[in-house]
Amino acid sequence: MIEHTLAHTSFSLGNNDLAKIRTKAIRRGIWFRALTKAERAQIELTMRIVKKIRSLFLTRVLDAIVRKLLDAMESRVARVMREIGRGLAENLSRIAQSWGNKSAHHWKEDPSFVKYLAVTYINTPAMFKA
C-alpha cells in the first residue's frame, strides 16, 4: 500500500489502484506524455511482480510517479480553483465582510463561488491579469 496526501486528500494505493490510475492516464493521453519510459516501467513491473509493497524505497518512488500522474490528470479548472480561485474568494469575502456583509464569510467555502472565480480568471484576457 502507498499512502498519499495530496492537498487535503489521503488515500492508499494497491496494485489494483495502480492499474486503475494507469488505465485512466492512458485513456486521457497522459501516460506517455507525462512519464518517462523508466517511470512507466517501474509502475508496470510493480503491478506484475509485487503483491504487497513493503519497501519504503519503492513506496517513495511510486509515490512520486503517482503524484506526477495525478497532477497531470487534474483539469485546468480544478488546478486554477486550487491555486487562484480559493485565494480570490477569501479576498472578496474579507472585503465584503469589511463593508458589512455578514453572510460573506461563507463565500470562501462555497465551491460554486470558487469555481465561478476560477473560470472567470481563466477567461480574463492576460492584459487585465495582475
Question: What's this model, at a glance?
Answer:
By secondary structure, the chain is mainly alpha-helical. It has six helices and two strands.
Describe what this molecule looks like in 3D.
The chain is mostly helical and 130 residues long. It folds into two domains: 2-74, no CATH class; 77-128, no CATH class. 65% of the residues lie in helices and 8% in strands. The protein is built from six helices and two strands. The chain has helices spanning 15-27, 31-34, 37-49, 56-73, 76-98, 111-123; strands spanning 2-6, 9-13. A two-stranded antiparallel ribbon has the order 1-2. Helix 1 (15-27) runs antiparallel to helix 3 (37-49) and helix 5 (76-98) crosses helix 6 (111-123). The longest helix is centred in the C-terminal third of the chain and has 23 residues, at 76-98. The protein is elongated. Mean pLDDT is 87; it is low at 1-11.
Order of helices and strands: EEHHHHHH
Low-confidence stretches: 1-11
- Termini Cα gap: 43 Å
The helix count comes to 6
Strand order of the largest sheet: 1-2
The Cα radius of gyration reads 20 Å
Total strand segments: 2
- Average pLDDT, all residues: 87
Percent strand equals 5-15%
Question: Helix content range of the residues, please?
Answer: 55-70%
**Dominant shape:** elongated
Number of individual domains: 2
Major sheet attributes: 2 strands, antiparallel
The class by helix and strand makeup works out as mainly alpha
